């Protein structure tokens, strides 16, 4: 908490213009229904307030005031974390104006003061989420919530802060959403929007529809037995229970009338009749459809692949079971993929031994390049992980029905009580083969910049699609990452409502191993050189991936916020030349 005795700055919580109308509702808190035109048809919408976004002035005891600094203490383009006694705010000065928002990224709590400020938004230094500094609204992902926004007042060159204690403590704000107003008389087997898949893309699509005022029926269906959860944690934090990694609590889905059908698999889609047929024979009519089924892990093709204690990590139960079985035992991981490497790192201090089998000679070679891959490999070897490279599994051997040994094509035999397979995945789109929806030779659903398929009213998002990436001259690519799935879901929802919004985000991902993170932005596929600054041996470096003369991606370790800085340059459409980083 930084104070100049003579001068002070004042901040107070404000509700964005868009949301203020809710505060001017009738006494019972209900707004009159809005009329919202979708494709020329008038529909009724009803707005409801989420408790987190309630008006901070209803309860004067909830308001705190404190002083922070002189107007001249912050230069344009500067950010400062300020302490208000019962919580902190982020004070920002841009283009001569002060703004104040929550200081922590709602995703995993990163300090935004260490992020990147650019053209009216702040980008998280850890995972790249972006927030509008005027409204606090989330503009790029990952994460679901926005920042609380506080009003900055300046009097006589002094600055005072006034803020809601609740907003300071929660450091997050759920955007205003509509509720369904037609649930009393709906037909069980018919919905306006059907979302197949309940990952990040499906959930963000449903939430965006409600945020935009859509108040008709939304049904999400998933083969999973759980409500949407934070899937990246399955390999990064393997003993997490489903409720610990849930993206939203059960009450959230009830409050906003987002129906989730769990353990329900769609077997076929009839796009002419607009009907989805489930595996158990149940049929559901839809008006708009989002396919966000993600991918299916590849399995081994060798003898013994079906035996007990051989896992693809697909669910929280899989991850929990692996941790339990691996504790003080011998683990073999097949595939130095992101999943394989993260699992190896997580189990290294819990298992008796961890062995990793990989076809390439260096992990992550295609993605991070050989030099970064070698540095990562060395870090793993220093943490007792043993690599068996340039070979694959020829057989899994059992004893009394349980896994006992993994035999490699090189002839080496590894002791194994549990085996985790991370050899890639294929898009989960087999059920669409006869549908008429355009699917490429690898099984990916082909969409345009608005996430639309070739069939009107049918959208697709997430790991199962290829889409035009603005960053790479609209080349159609597959980007199977958490952040991108969020953005796909948002773009699909906006275009279901005929907004005509095109995707222009820069891919951003991270991996976490042994308490260290590699952050990555851009799309480095086909890079022909890597320019490295810093020290690979010390694991403090930034790597620029170039194609011809242009930087197409960047990765870093212990070098924040360089990846977020590069992401902001790329998203602005500016080119970074190789000579600029050499």
UniProtKB/TrEMBL annotation:
The keyword Protein biosynthesis does not apply. Residues 66-161 form the Rieske domain. InterPro entries: FAD-oxidoreductase/Apoptosis, FAD/NAD-bd_sf, FAD/NAD-binding_dom, FAD/NAD-linked_Rdtase_dimer_sf, Reductase_C, Rieske_2Fe-2S, Rieske_2Fe-2S_sf. Gene3D superfamilies: 3.30.390.30, FAD/NAD(P)-binding domain, Rieske [2Fe-2S] iron-sulphur domain. One of its GO terms (biological process) is execution phase of apoptosis. Keywords: 2Fe-2S, Apoptosis, Electron transport, FAD, Flavoprotein, Iron, Iron-sulfur, Metal-binding, Mitochondrion, Oxidoreductase, Transport. SUPFAM superfamilies: FAD/NAD(P)-binding domain, FAD/NAD-linked reductases, dimerisation (C-terminal) domain, ISP domain. One of its GO terms (cellular component) is mitochondrion. Signal peptide: none annotated. GO terms for molecular function: 2 iron, 2 sulfur cluster binding; metal ion binding; oxidoreductase activity, acting on NAD(P)H. The keyword Metal-binding applies. It comes from the Eukaryota. Pfam families: Pyr_redox_2, Reductase_C, Rieske. It is found in: Mitochondrion. Belongs to the FAD-dependent oxidoreductase family. Induces apoptosis through a caspase dependent pathway. Reduces mitochondrial membrane potential. This is Apoptosis-inducing factor 3. The gene is Aifm3.
